[in-house]
Design brief:
This protein is α/β, with parallel strands linked by helices. It has a single domain (20-173, 180-249), classed as Acetylglutamate kinase-like (Carbamate kinase, 3-Layer(aba) Sandwich). The chain has helices at 40-54, 72-77, 82-105, 128-136, 154-164, 198-204, 211-219, 234-239, and strands spanning 20-25, 59-64, 111-115, 124-125, 140-144, 169-174, 179-180, 192-193, 195-197, 224-228, 246-249. The protein has a nine-stranded mixed β-sheet, sandwiched between helices. A two-stranded antiparallel ribbon has the order 7-8.
């Protein structure tokens, strides 16, 4: 585990339980009140939450999706070649990453943007050791363009990058407060599960993350915490060890 440095601002004397994290944000997180694209107020709100944990000394890398602009799978269903559609989706994540970088930098946090697709005018190439070095220097790193390959989701990207940079945990920030026994929008008595094993998620077909991402985390013993991004302070609560959302690891009790 990477130990968090002494925080610049210890509001309550509590220490983070994670020293280095991957935060996975779906593109929908940037939608806010907009029907399409980026709501810059939403980007600012996310940036503020992230700033709080950076100020506590946590090393943060962010993987952002592109679903607010284009999803490769959906585009392919409209007749676009699947490989082309997936590259379109990867480029959408770069647009989101640039917006998020700007919002975070306006709050005084130093940020580096790395891309899995070469685009030297806007981002560094993703190099694991360079990303780690940025984190060690207190910089936040945003990882864009997925894995750089079609047919892989940004969930899988987040799992892969978490392993590559030696993160302590993969934080999956969503619009729901954890993983449920069934879709709570369709099943009235669906219950939230506080802990699960990787095999629980795979065997039950729980789709909060794709199976490739879950399997990659299982093979490398990378814990996953799924939580609600839109409750103020939740990002900070997670890194302080508060029991919110759902934790997926090799020992979950499934309740």
């Amino acid at each position: 585990m990477v130990l968090a440095e002494e925080p610049d601002r210890a509001r309550d004397g509590r220490r983070p339980v994670f020293g280095r994290v991957i935060l996975k944000l779906g593109g929908e997180a940037l939608l806010g009140q907009a029907g399409y694209g980026i709501d810059y107020a939403a980007a600012q709100h996310i940036a503020e939450q992230i700033t709080h944990i950076v100020e506590r000394g946590v090393q943060v890398a962010i993987v952002v999706g592109g679903g607010n602009i284009v999803r490769g799978m959906e585009a392919s269903q409209h007749g676009i070649d699947r490989v082309t559609a997936d590259y379109m989706g990867m480029l959408a994540t770069v647009i989101n990453a640039l917006a998020l970088r700007d919002a975070i930098e306006h709050l005084g946090i130093e940020v580096r943007l790395q891309s899995a697709i070469a685009m030297s005018q806007v981002a560094e190439p993703f190099i694991p050791r360079r990303a780690i070095r940025h984190l060690e220097k207190g910089r936040l790193v945003i990882l864009a363009a997925g894995t750089g390959n079609p047919f892989f989701t940004t969930d899988t990207t987040a799992a892969l990058r978490a392993v590559e940079i030696g993160a302590d945990v993969l934080l999956k920030a969503t619009k729901v407060d954890g993983i449920y026994s069934a879709d709570p929008n369709k099943v009235s008595d669906a219950t939230r599960l506080s802990t699960l094993t990787y095999m629980d998620v795979l065997n039950r077909g729980l789709t909060i993350m794709d199976s490739t991402a879950v399997t990659l985390c299982m093979d490398n013993r990378m814990p996953i915490i799924v939580f609600d991004l839109f409750t103020d302070g939740n990002v900070e609560r997670v890194i302080l060890g508060d029991r919110i959302g759902t934790r997926v690891d090799g020992e979950g009790a499934g309740a």
